[in-house]
Amino acid sequence: MDELPYKTILCDVLIIGAGGAGCRAAIEASKHNLDVIMISKELVGKAHTAMAEGGYNVSLGNVDPEDDVDTHFKDTIVGGNYLNNQELVQILVENASERIFDLEEFGAVFDRTPEGKIAQRTFGKQSWRRTAYASDRTGSEIMVTLTEAIRKTSVRVFDEVFATRLVLNDGKISAVTAVDLKYGDYILFRPKAVVMATGGAGRIYKVTSNAQLDVGDGYGMAYEAGAELIDMEMIQFHPTGMCAPKSAVGRLVTEAVRGEGGILLNNKGERFMNKYYPAVMELAGRDQVARSIMTEVLEGRGSPNGGAYLSIAHIPHQIIEFRLESMIEQFEDAGVDIRNEPMEVSPTAHHFMGGIKIDTNAQSTIPGVFAAGECTGGVHGGNRLGGNALADTQVFGALSGENAAKYAKTNERPGVNRDEVQKEFAHLEAMLTRKEGISPSDARDELTTLMWEKVQIFRNEKDLAYAVKELRRIEKEVVPNIKVDVKEKRFNPGWHQAMEFEHMVKTARMVAEAALMRKGSRGAHYRVDADPNDKGYYNIIIRKGKDGEMELRKDDVVVTKVELP
Amino acid sequence: MTKTIKTRVERYNPDKDDAPYLQDFDVEYEPGMTVLDVLLFIQDRHDSSLAFRWECRGGQCGSCAVRVNGTARIACRTKVNPDEELLLQPLEKMPIIKDLVVDMAQVTFRIRRIRPYVARDKPPQRPEIIHSEEIEKLREIRKCIECSACLSNCPIVRETWAYPGPMIIRQIARLELDPRDVEDRVAMAINEAVYSCTTCKMCEDICPKSIPIPGLAVELLRAKAVEAGYQLSEGQQAFLDQVNKTGRSVPEKDTGLLHSLETEEFVVENPRGRVGFFTGCLIDYRMQSTGRALIEVLNRNGVDVIVPKEQWCCASPAFRTGDLTTAHAATERVTEIFEAAMEKYGFDTVVVACAGCGKTLTEDHRPYIEETRGTPPRFKVYDLSKYMIDVIGKENLVMPKGEINLRVTYHEPCHLGRGQGVYGEPIELLKMIPGIEYVEDPMKNRCCGAGGGVRAGNRELSQKIALTKKEYVLATGADMVTTECPFCTIQLKDMMNDTGMETRYIPDLLAESYRKGDEN
């Protein structure tokens, strides 16, 4: 077969992903006088980080002076059901303040206290008011700021370029294959170090708050390259997503609504959180609130569209208008005035606590491959606190960028196996040339429905076993037969979906296999048939075995300060 | 049966097509459907290779801007009307990569050119103290999600990339408003042709975050420029000098309306209402007959018209170009004059027939007076057509009887439509006239190029915008173009001069029909 043409681009550090973590990593790496490239599947600035609404956790103590780093640490561990890697949590809580000041230095505009400091508000499961914010568009504020900051650096930005595979040489990173989505050309990046900042994979679920790009590319690529992944069964279903109209299903309704005093009601008008978590009510953990809502729905007390009512109508209009402006806009589109009427909400797949396993240098188990943000695992344990994700992107983004730069300075560029590169491009090309096969959109529907029905909030052995079986079948039978209808390379969404599908299947399989392995309930992983003997204080590690099969093992939790119960 | 929407999508793959073409798709309608849903439906059911961008579907990422029925919108927040055909096209001005996906390189280049980040001369203290008041305006202008939709329909960008467009001017203002930024953003704004904007407010209308870019960015930067000592162009300064000297922005040629009226009171028997008439400079000094027509039309509909002899320019040219000293002095003077007249003659409503004056009285004078003395002006301001349709009431209007047998189209003045929210009323008045066949211009709300000090300050650019406008007007095939703004009228008259198409002011046409009706 003829070789497929591709273009080679050399650099020192390659950042894959341009959300909060990727941009922050690029900015940091560029401080080291290196050639830094950031590739982005979407246009720069359009990443899912912009969708984060509520805020950024940092124990500045601007509103509640009693707050401190240790309390933030403990809240995060307790909230994470003790599954967090405590070394990583320490890094998160210690650096959150410097990183938010970085953002301000770059030009971010957070809401202020009367003294002119960064204002902080209540979020679920936190001892003090700790969440810094810019109205309810904090993620957007951060994304806009980082976009501005990136434009100040020498970072070379390649947008709408899609990475497909990490190519190793002797166990170290040597190249990354990619496709220019605009024109369909193949590209081979030859960095010395890579930062994965590819975000989550909410899109493997039918109902999700995530942008269309969150399909688990990083999980799939890291797994395929042999990296270890951790806690993949831990998926946060945000308790409050929109349930109507159809086109808005799953869209996030920020936790800030509850933080500002919003209450949850069932169809009888009862404030049902009273029954489940009377001490903290609506501000229980996200997993707890999600299960409470679903219990109400399953027991027949749900709203017409299968959710609960979230009301903030008792709060003064001006507070809602100042602090929840996007929510007003979002529900206006659905014909609901949240100042006077309740919102209808139900859980939506929101955040992956699990992901690429990293050490305290943000390096994965593959030398030269660093990772940051939602695509990593370990920081948030079994359940992530609202507001910790944005902090995560900045703290670990900067850390990964710095360490990738150091790695690039001290390591030579290994050679690349051209056969492996050609094989990957031929594989992508085959999706276009195949005459018979399965359409990516059908395949995607099947996958997201399977995950939503069988690997969801309430899990059981039978469903999980079924899902695992199905996913293995899909991986074997569907993935190799994906066929793009129109054989064009220039900006062809059909082809983009086909390429992503493989990453989605691998991600989904890791989630389901790990969920099947964990027999007890812990954190976001809730088994209705929980084995009472499985206390669950361990992490599940996944990697691709030497034989090409998925290997799972249980590992001890990394504990430094807070003992396991 | 499910309702289907016929959707025409512009398709283009430069690898194989010579030119863009339209392709029709049937889309099953669902309540609440957005343009993004329509595109996804087509991609899912008809053609998986249909290229368009989208990510968040929540109006937060700004990826999905396309032109919907000619106007740029973000797809995920634009509802479709099940009873209308839908036309979807890529953003204007940018090269097409494929279908609805355009190359943003020119935009990115222009953004980078303005050094779009907070420039500091030293690292800040940590923590940095910033008070809420300092960032209040910043907050509003910072909501921009860089969707680039506003660039697409900007009449200035369309003519010249020398103007980087609303989104980027907004970013300059965002930095100017940031107390931390040390760069001279005013000089930058001048370099980036901030005086090219006609303040047509198309960008504000398009903006998914409703950022008032002309007011909050363009006029703010211009005001800062004037404050910093930048000279206005000769043409613009001449207007302002005239205002300060005489209270009129133009010199009197033929005897002005106010000077020729024999009385201040035009009263009728058993009036249904009483209004003050704010003439504005051009009706007073250049379109006296239009002024008389307005009085006549209102009188015929049973409304007393009071025309204070002493009037003063609303100072729209000063507001638009940034001379706030002139602007604010005029604001106080106009308020005084009309508040005194309303006391003396007992009216609480002021009627204007000039889009620019109306916009200035409502959008600029009102907040300024409220801010300086705590209460807004005591009178209400109405455009003539709005007053007739809404206050007198369509059912109470005296129908004009004289036939005018013409095919007539309408140019919507920017400061009437987007400036004052008056859209359909002038057209309803036109349609009352027997014989008139109204011809809709799909581009009727496109700027004529006269406003914002551009005609006075940059005639060449103004002409270019006018020539584009001319094409749209000619495409209607009408015999006459009508409007409700003296400034637009002058511009339209100039540009239609060689075409044989007549330009008329709506009150004139109404008065003509009334008079003709009397003769029969």
SSE blueprint and pairings:
The complex is a heterodimer of chains A (565) and B (520).
Chain A: E1 6-10, E2 13-16, H1 20-30, E3 36-40, E4 56-57, H2 69-79, H3 86-106, E5 120-121, E6 131-132, H4 138-150, E7 156-159, E8 161-169, E9 172-180, E10 186-190, E11 193-196, H5 217-225, E12 229-230, E13 235-242, H6 256-259, E14 263-265, H7 273-276, H8 286-298, E15 308-311, H9 317-323, H10 325-333, E16 343-352, E17 355-357, E18 369-371, E19 376-377, H11 388-410, H12 418-433, H13 440-454, E20 458-459, H14 461-478, H15 493-517, E21 526-527, E22 538-544, E23 550-556
Helix pairs in contact in A: 1-4, 1-11, 2-3, 3-11, 5-15, 13-14, 13-15, 14-15
Chain B: E1 4-11, E2 21-28, H1 35-45, E3 65-68, E4 71-74, E5 86-89, E6 96-98, E7 101-102, H2 105-113, H3 132-141, H4 149-152, H5 155-159, H6 166-177, H7 185-191, H8 202-206, H9 213-227, H10 234-246, H11 257-260, E8 265-266, E9 273-278, H12 280-285, H13 288-300, E10 303-306, H14 316-321, H15 324-345, E11 349-352, H16 355-373, E12 380-383, H17 384-393, E13 407-410, H18 417-420, H19 425-432, E14 437-438, H20 454-457, H21 459-475, E15 480-483, H22 486-496, E16 502-505, H23 506-519
Parallel strand pairs in B: 1-5, 9-10, 9-11, 11-12, 13-14, 13-15, 15-16
Antiparallel strand pairs in B: 1-2, 3-4, 3-5, 6-7, 8-10
Helix pairs in contact in B: 3-6, 6-7, 6-9, 7-9, 13-23, 15-16, 17-19, 21-22
